[in-house]
């Protein structure tokens, strides 16, 4: 009898891992639990059910100036077949000039 009790306790300890119990997900929480998408709130709720957006809480994106940028923002779905890249041709030309 005591041996069966010890074996049962050992099985219970083996089944429940403490690391999995500490993580709270929407599957382990209550029915109306929503964890969210790690977004910051941009305002607050009013007493009458409205929502006020605050300008100081909105994200500020800093975009660099791309006027003299060499690359274009378009990537073709059907790229052209290139046998040699421009970098390899320039190194081949410089090697020929060195001889």
TrEMBL record:
Region Disordered, annotated ranges: 80-99
Keywords: Mitochondrion, Ribonucleoprotein, Ribosomal protein, Transit peptide
Compartment(s) where it occurs, according to its Swiss-Prot or TrEMBL record: Mitochondrion
Biased composition (Low complexity): 82-93
UniProt GO molecular function: structural constituent of ribosome
Source organism, top-level taxon: Eukaryota
One Gene Ontology cellular component: mitochondrial large ribosomal subunit
Transmembrane helix keyword on record: no
GO biological process, one term: translation
PANTHER family: LARGE RIBOSOMAL SUBUNIT PROTEIN ML41, MITOCHONDRIAL RIBOSOMAL PROTEIN L41
Protein family membership: Belongs to the mitochondrion-specific ribosomal protein mL41 family.
Name listed for the protein in its UniProt record: (wild Malaysian banana) hypothetical protein
Species, as recorded: Musa acuminata subsp. malaccensis (Wild banana)
């Amino acid at each position: 009898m005591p041996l069966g009790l010890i074996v049962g306790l050992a099985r219970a300890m083996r089944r429940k891992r403490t690391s999995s119990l500490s993580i709270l997900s929407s599957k382990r929480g209550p029915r109306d639990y929503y964890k969210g998408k790690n977004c910051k709130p941009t305002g607050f709720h009013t007493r009458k059910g409205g929502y006020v957006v605050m300008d100081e809480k909105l994200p500020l994106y800093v975009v660099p100036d791309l006027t003299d940028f060499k690359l274009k923002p378009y990537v073709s779905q059907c790229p052209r077949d290139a046998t040699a890249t421009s970098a390899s041709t320039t190194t081949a030309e410089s090697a020929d000039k060195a001889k």
